[in-house]
Amino acid sequence: MASSQLPAWLQTSYNELMAQAQRQQLAHALLLQLSDGLGAHDLLKAIERGLMCRQVDAPCGHCKDCRLLQASSHPDCYWIAADGNQIKVDQIRELISALATTSQQGGSRLVVIEQAHRLNNAAANALLKTLEEPNENCFIILCSDTPGLLPATIISRCQRINVSGIDEAPIKHWLEQQGVDWQQHGWAYRIVGGPYALLDANTGERLQGLASARLAWRNALANGIVDANLAKYTAEHPQDSLQVLDWLLSKKLASLKTQQPLLSLKLGDFISQLWHTHQKLSQMPTINYVALCNRLVLEYKQLTKGN
Ligand SMILES: [Zn+2]
To answer: Which is nearest to 13 in space by CA: 36, 52, 40, 35?
Structure first.
């Protein structure tokens, strides 16, 4: 059954929602704060299967609802995604008029709005009334990794779907189940945007680049010399490169903590400065990356001098 393939951090949320649905206590408007890199799409698909199948052991996998879902052609499921950068008012109007008719298969209806923060103002306003007075047996799930960008009027009408337990241990376990070599690639899951994103990147060159950068930054921190390949990589992939450095420094900080409080403090400051630099990169189009790498390594050498 597909839901059993969900990773641990999604399974708990899924089980809670299905239990609420069985008790007929599931809210009609729901908000899921989760990125696709952490598995939002998989969770939404599992919820769809669980909600639409009307068998006791839902999702049974062989009833008409299940078969329609397997063929991606269930007429009572509506997935809305941004048209370009925005979810436009016409998309929402079209949805509302579809919901005004009765359910085609006679069961529940499900609306999923992915990247809901992309609803433009007119679309968000058009959706409000539907969220407030939902049709019977119709569930609307808004999904966003940045729900803070949604209007407060939308958020206040939705019940949140909580996802917890997104810790390294279950992520490691799940990635290994998916065939990822944790020692070699697992460390980079945060940098690429989450464990699901790591699977996407697994076949690409990005992970190789990150692994080379990790080695090059480690050498640079140890001997104080930035090699040409590292400077080149940083110029080409500044975000990835600085995140690798941040990962190395955070790991070092975690290993120090109690033994060297002064060094821990300095290193903590250095990491937060690095984070600010990282945030400002997009506003600095003419940055000299060779100079930046050298400055970072020099500052690191100075703060760790004598330790
Ligand atoms: Zn079924």
So the answer is: 40
